[in-house]
Design goal:
Blueprint lengths: L17 H13 L13 E4 L5 E4 L5 E3 L4 E3 L1 H9 L3 H10 L8 H9 L16 H9 L11 H8 L13 E5 L11 E7 L2 H10 L9 E7 L18 E4 L7 E4 L6 E6 L1 H8 L6 E6 L8 H10 L2 E5 L4 H16 L4 E3 L9 H7 L19
Helix pairs in contact: 1-2, 2-3, 8-11
């Protein structure tokens, strides 16, 4: 997501305090930062419960360790709001963060956003072959209560203890355990485009498409979320590899679903799938930026179904919900937003504290604690 494709012009760029502009834009787009994990001198700021999003006020660049993305302030605006770099710059102007979009000023800043020598580290590129190889090195989640993945599912009431989890979720063990991080492995979810999921339904032996991206939820021995390395070294409890922007983890039916629910995160998707009947599907995205994509809206329009959105209660979730609603209404798709929990809890949080009533009693999670 860096601006390497935009050559630097021969003209002198307009002098703007881009690191400061980027910080203000991040606060508007992401909300308050995580002060506990941010540096006390203010040079490095973190967002997210585990601090997986890092912004440097020295360089003006950001990194999202969870999703494997990085870039400058324009890249961040594009990720959160959609559009291109010109539209992202216009958004900065509209919010009073950059100068008026005159031709001279715009051409300089658009093509050379930062005049320093610092270059944002490019996220690793994973070929389809590499993603498939990594997926093939995962294992089926066993039914034994001692297994870290099963403990995670049982403790949070995400999936019935006596049922096999969806085939799109598998276990990737960690063979070298960091004493500080205590990560034993990752519950790995396969992500692909909706069209790939539909095509694989009838053509793939296991009904699974080739992975377009993979997301791992790092788990400790007792089933608790655990960073894959120390937090201050970029450790996260969730990490995504591959292009996940237009991909989803499809749970539930793929045969003419009557309802498609869209959530942000694998845990929320599991909590909903285990409490809905066999006529519904649940799509899990890796973040709110996936809700801005026209490809997903086009796929939903082609399914001729009702769509129910389950956004997170934070600012980013509400903005993504409004954007996706607008896209679907423009395509005449029946869409509604699920009622928000008064305490701001998401489906996974609700499942952990008080499981939802289920129409199918076979899918009702057990209240028995996995360690008893």
């Amino acid at each position: 997501m860096t601006n390497a494709a935009n050559p630097r012009p021969a003209t002198n760029p307009v002098t703007l305090d881009w690191p400061s502009i980027g910080y203000q834009a991040a606060c508007l787009l992401l909300g308050p930062n995580n002060s506990r994990l941010s540096r006390s001198d203010g040079t490095e700021l973190r967002w997210g419960r585990q601090g997986s999003f890092r912004y440097s006020r020295r360089s003006g660049y950001w990194q999202d360790f969870e999703r494997g993305e990085s870039g400058d302030v324009l890249d961040l605006v594009i990720r959160e709001r959609g559009g291109d770099r010109r539209q992202a710059y216009d958004w900065l102007v509209e919010n009073g963060l950059a100068e008026s979009n005159s031709n001279a000023n715009y051409n300089a800043t658009y093509n050379a956003t930062y005049s320093g020598s610092y270059a944002a580290p490019a996220p690793p590129r994973f070929t389809p072959e590499e993603l498939l190889r990594r997926w093939e090195r995962t294992y089926k989640i066993t039914e034994e209560s001692w297994h870290p993945a099963r403990r995670w599912l049982n403790h949070r009431n995400l999936w019935p203890q006596d049922q096999e989890p969806p085939a799109a979720l598998r276990w990737r063990p960690r063979y070298r355990i960091d004493p500080e991080a205590q990560c034993y492995g990752a519950v790995t979810a396969l992500l692909a485009s909706p069209q790939a999921w539909l095509e694989a339904r009838d053509t793939s032996p296991k009904g699974l498409p080739a992975p377009q991206a993979l997301q791992g939820i790092n788990i400790g021995k007792q089933g608790q979320p655990a960073p894959d390395q120390p937090l201050l070294e970029g450790g996260v409890t969730k990490r995504t590899i591959g292009p996940s922007r237009n991909s989803v983890c499809w749970l539930g039916t793929r045969t003419e679903p009557k309802i498609v629910r869209i959530v942000e995160g694998i845990a929320d998707a599991l909590a909903l799938t285990s409490r809905t009947d066999d006529t519904e599907a649940v799509w899990a995205t890796t973040g709110t930026s996936g809700w801005h994509q026209q490809q997903l809206a086009d796929a939903l329009a082609g399914l001729n179904c009702q769509v129910i959105l389950h956004p997170d209660p934070d600012q980013g979730g509400q903005q993504a919900n409004a954007a996706m609603t607008e896209l679907l209404q423009a395509r005449e798709v029946k869409v509604e937003t699920a009622p928000a929990d008064p305490q701001g809890r998401d489906p996974a949080d609700l499942a952990a504290s008080d499981p939802f009533p289920s129409k199918d009693t076979r899918k009702q999670p057990s209240r028995k604690h996995p360690t008893k």
